[in-house]
Write a structure and sequence with these properties.
With 206 residues, the chain is α+β, with helices and mostly antiparallel strands. The chain has 2 domains: 1-51 and 170-206, no CATH class; 54-152, no CATH class. The protein is 32% helix and 19% strand. It contains 4 helices and 10 strands. It has helices spanning 4-14, 21-46, 117-122, 177-199, and strands at residues 2-3, 54-62, 80-82, 99-102, 110-111, 130-134, 137-140, 147-152, 164-165, 174-175. The strands form 2 sheets. Strands 2, 3, 4, 5, 6, 7, 8 and 9 form an 8-stranded mixed β-sheet that branches. A two-stranded antiparallel ribbon has the order 1-10. The protein is elongated, with a radius of gyration of 21 Å.
């Protein structure tokens, strides 16, 4: 089993540029994108696999930013959102990108579409925990909740280094063994195309 960084360094070494950190960083980005592409293809063929999922904890803060509270006639409109934007998730058609629940993982919250927010806020008799995803933030409609867990398949696992992640020990940015060759081929092919375009004067060298 490989990892994003390990695969990137091997590619850089193969190309004789293993001391060029700028190039290595660019290859890491390419490997990350190729890994996401390969996993998405596999998920379409075989469905999701829990081994790709990661769970992070996020604090909630009071915020109405980005929500249509000003269009709702209410005495108050207080909701919570994650303190930080949430990393992108790999999804396929019909799949929810995130699973949101209590910080101890004992309870899952119900997902709603942004257009349903108005009705949820207006219904003061519905105390069930609901959440929505708006502009990279997760909003939770329960004032008593201070922290949540978010389970998803990260598009870029390296983004999770800035979060409290309960299952990120070891090579959390792993690439399955049977996808390492595919990812490597995709990256090398991309680099060859870029090099050919450069040699042909199709890329501005300035």
């Amino acid at each position: 089993m490989g990892s994003i960084r390990e695969t990137a360094y091997k590619i850089a070494e193969f190309l004789g540029r293993n001391t060029d950190q700028g190039f290595i960083n660019a290859v890491i980005s390419s490997v990350t994108a190729a890994r996401s592409q390969s996993l998405r293809r596999r998920m379409k063929q075989e469905g999701t696999n829990p081994i790709y999922q990661r769970t992070i904890k996020e604090n909630l803060v009071d915020s109405n930013t980005g929500l249509p509270c000003d269009s709702i006639v209410l005495d108050e409109c207080v909701i919570k959102r994650t303190a930080n934007p949430i990393p992108n998730s790999i999804t396929i058609n019909g799949m929810q990108p995130y699973r949101v629940g209590a910080s101890d993982r004992t309870e899952s919250f119900t997902f709603i579409q942004p257009e349903q927010i108005k009705f949820v806020i207006e219904d003061k008799y519905d105390n069930s925990l609901k959440w929505a995803y708006v502009n990279k933030y997760i909003y939770v409609f329960n004032q008593m909740i201070e922290e949540i867990t978010i389970t998803f398949i990260p598009e870029n696992p390296l983004d999770l280094e800035d979060y409290e992640c309960s299952d990120c020990a070891g090579d959390f940015d792993f690439i399955p063994d049977d996808l390492v060759k595919e990812v490597t081929y995709l990256v090398l092919n991309e680099l060859r195309v870029l090099q050919n375009n450069t040699d042909n004067g199709e890329i501005d060298k300035n």
